[in-house]
Amino acid sequence: MNKIKPNPKALLPILIFLVLYLGCGIYFEYLSPEEGRMGFYVISVVVAFGISLIVAFAQNKALSFDEKIHVCAQGIGDDNIVIMLFIFLMAGAFSGLAKAAGGASSTANLMLDIIPGNLAIPGMFLIACLISMAMGTSVGTITVIVPIATEIAKTTSFNLPLLIGAVVGGAMFGDNLSVISDTTIAATRTQGVEMRDKFRENIKIALPAALITLAILVVYTLRNPGTELGAFEYNVWLALPYFIVLVLALVGLNVFLVLGLGIVLFFVIGGLAGTLSFSTAFSAMGDGTTGMFETMIVTILVASISALMKAYGGFEAILAFIRQRARSDKGGMFGICLLTAFMDVATANNTVAIVIAAPIAKEISEEYHVAPRQVASLLDTCSCIMQGIIPYGAQLLVAASLSGITSLEIIPFLYYPFLLCVCMVASILLSRSKAEA
Fold this sequence. Notes:
Blueprint (H helix, E strand, L loop, with lengths): L11 H20 L13 H14 L6 H12 L2 H23 L1 H12 L5 H16 L2 H18 L4 H18 L4 H10 L3 H29 L12 H15 L4 H19 L4 H13 L2 H20 L1 H10 L5 H19 L2 H19 L3 H18 L4 H10 L3 H4 L4 H16 L7
Helix pairs in contact: 1-2, 2-14, 3-14, 4-9, 4-12, 4-13, 4-14, 5-6, 5-11, 6-7, 6-8, 6-10, 6-11, 7-8, 7-19, 8-10, 8-18, 9-17, 9-18, 10-18, 10-21, 11-12, 14-17, 16-17, 16-18, 17-18, 18-21
């Protein structure tokens, strides 16, 4: 078999995507904004990747159209891609059912009822961490918690941007660590590692950042005390499935079983609590899976584009660029971080960034002997760092919209994402050389 030669021209599809998606996003978000519409959602990411795939097919006349279709089919048919698609479907059904049952709001209100009012800011951070880990979505967590945080700010003397920054930080913490998050699913499946192994690697980076953030928030609230909060309504039984799913996932139970059990629990408890009926439960599951369709289509398109770029020599071109600069496994890890961060800045979607960067990261890990669990952790962590601080990302745009402030006002108070970046760099510098694959 002939060795594939580096070919920078094979990266043209990604360049086309960046020009289309990032260029149009910047234009419609900042140069020509439309009322009530997020600029980075004017052009669909699916359309942008679809055009990029057409460009990829137009390249390399040495391969026939049928041969290119075969290359795409092999990329889409990879075991990890197929498993990832199935998990996306189940995660969507779980999230839709949990939201309709009222599980997220009950869990948040339960925690708020326990936490003292004068510690509301660190309390909101902890609640966002827990909800995001249980729900597996940072945007979903922000949607649930930010309205509560906004009301707290109105009735107390707490700084609203600081409260929102704490919520966003907690949401990114949980998204990064949750075993049912689409970012975790993408990072682990593309690298062929178990979720619990990635979690153990990830917690070494995320926990110190979270503890430092918590300490900063506690010091702030002690120096700037607010007023006591009112009572919050909740149903303990509706919060219970989230805690069960969280515990079972952390002990290493198969993710399909975890999600399946979570769906059954919410179906039964929601019915008994009167928040779900037979019809609304199935409708909610359908809405949840439908919400995953774009992510699944993007995964299929990116798998196809990546397979073609790899066959054309695009991956080899990137690896050659990294080889010229990386002299050790640490250099390889920094290369993975920069690649993932760049893709997230370009796509404003952490899952998409991981799916694009993952195949190249796998090649880097094999060449520089970086353990797959470390690669999965770096992919997820880097994408969450960037996604948590870019002002045009869905997380900050949604948080700003719900709280009535701008995303730029929130950025100075995003302690957790910035500290996570520091901890990630420190973990790479302190990592043992030539980790076991």
